[in-house]
Amino acid sequence: MLPDPEVLPVRTQLGESPLWDAAASALWFIDIRAPALHRLDPRTQKLDSWPMPEPIGSLGLCRNGRLLLALQHSLHVFDPRTGKRERFLVLEDEPEHNRLNDGKVAPDGAFWVGSMDAHAAQRRPTGTLYRITADGKVSSHGNQLKVSNGLAWSADGRTMFHADSHLQWIRRYRHASGTLSDQKTIANPDEKTGRPDGAAADVEGGYWSAGVSAGCLNRWSADGELLERVALPVPNPTMPCFAGEDMKTVYVTSLARTPHENAGAMVRLRLAVAGVPVARFAL
């Protein structure tokens, strides 16, 4: 029997993008609204933080030990040893009212990131999904998104998952050499089931989606069957991340939106299945 989820002494306004750094045995994550980048040592609970000049939507680890940060309309390379941040590129076509949101490094070392309308009252379909390579090449792979989210890849790298939190769909694609094909909408989760937010994949082909409206993690099959549902002690979970030596420990960030004693808290739990390690940006 697995233990109940544990609430950690970490609070954010809008926690997102948890990412396990196996080399350092550390967990990276962000607070979009602070805005700030954080690093947690799970053994000591030591928290290091770096403030950001504008909203930060996601991050990726680089092969050279640095981090790739997605700020409002641009990507930056950050060195945690020195605190130095250098601009990598600007997404010139992004509307002023947009910001970058969920992003993750694909198995081939490219960084995928989607944008969204930052104005909550409107949420116009002005978002785009981008693929960015280490040589600075940018390609778009879908537009008219409201809140791009939920990027994850299967263990063999051949399947990519993507979600839109406000259009309320989860899609599956065939992924090969940075191209997408065979798009299929596999689920349309409602508010009660849990609108799809950030996500992670497991080694058995499951897709774990944070049900941000329902306080849970939903495990979907690649064909859209709801295989498992894990209730969480936070009202608005935003994204899971597999971590630890066996990749069966999961950290989940959350949003401080609903009045609740654990609003904005981070949760840690154990699962019976291991997660797929996230690749590093080929920089």
Please, could you describe this protein's structure?
This protein is mainly β. It has one domain (6-270): 6 Propeller (Neuraminidase). The protein is built from no helices and 24 strands. It has strands at residues 6-11, 15-21, 26-31, 36-41, 46-51, 58-61, 67-70, 74-79, 84-90, 98-105, 111-117, 129-132, 138-140, 148-153, 159-164, 169-176, 179-187, 196-201, 207-211, 216-220, 226-231, 237-243, 249-254, 265-270. The strands form six sheets. It has a four-stranded antiparallel β-sheet, with no helix packed on it. β18 and β19 form a beta hairpin. The chain is globular.
Strand order of the main beta sheet, please? 1-24-23-22
CATH topology: Neuraminidase
| CA-CA gap between termini | 42 Å
Low-confidence stretches: none
List the domain count as a whole number.
Answer: 1
Radius of gyration: 17 Å
Helix and strand succession? EEEEEEEEEEEEEEEEEEEEEEEE
The name of the CATH architecture is 6 Propeller
The share of residues in helices is under 10%
Please tally the β strands and state the result.
Answer: 24
Quaternary state reads single chain
The average pLDDT value, as a whole number, equals: 96
